Amino acid sequence: MEEFGEREKDRYKRAVLIAAGSFYGLPFSLTEEDFLVAIDGGMHYYEALQITPNLLIGDMDSYGKENQEKGESGERRENGKNASFLNAKERTSYSIFDKKTVGERESFVEKAEREGDVEGKSSSIPLYRLPHVKNDTDLQAALKLVLSKGIREVHILAALGGERIDHSYAALQSLAFLAEEGAEGYLYGKNQLFTALRNGKKVFTKEYRGYLSVFSFTDLSCGVSESGLLYRINNVELQSTNPIGVSNEFIGEEAEVSVKNGILILSYAPLQG
Question: Considering the domain boundaries, does residue 1 fall inside one?
């Protein structure tokens, strides 16, 4: 896929990815500045919301298979009108690797085909069909594609829960990947939000309530501080094998979590409204 032109890069401020896990609705209103991605079976959620994503990506082991089994027509509704959802006849290859951080290894996504159908259905949404045998998950491939377009704020929905807890853990690893790439990533569960923090700080306004858990995702995170919370620490080390950072609490003050060297995974309840 070709990179955005300058106008398109300015247009999209954040990416919203919907996967095929447990979906609890949109946590915010979408705008024209959102780049919308359906990840395989996540296309069903977009269809239910009657929202048109910018693209569909995946190996189609759930979306195409489910549609074939259900005998669906392959049509969705957009603003009250029927519209086919997959249409891109040309084939293309693209690189979504930042060689400075990822290295010279070849990406399977470079070989992904931009096809015109899922199980024989025509479409107007670009489809990036990935091979079943690959080195990245569908979510990881989608994240690399989004980063290649210059988007640095990513919201991931429906990538937690479901029958595959290993997929949930893989999604947390993808959060750490975004942090390594200098991007902001947010992973939504049921009344729970995850983000990754690398060599920096995150500030929470006094409106936050409930628990805040902080885990070291790297083997060792150095210089970790937490202020404005029930339990306060200053310049300590957290280890990935010790869950001591679980269940801190907001107390109605502005709070801050920081780390000098390492990657932290933060879990907290999102603001309501």
Answer: no
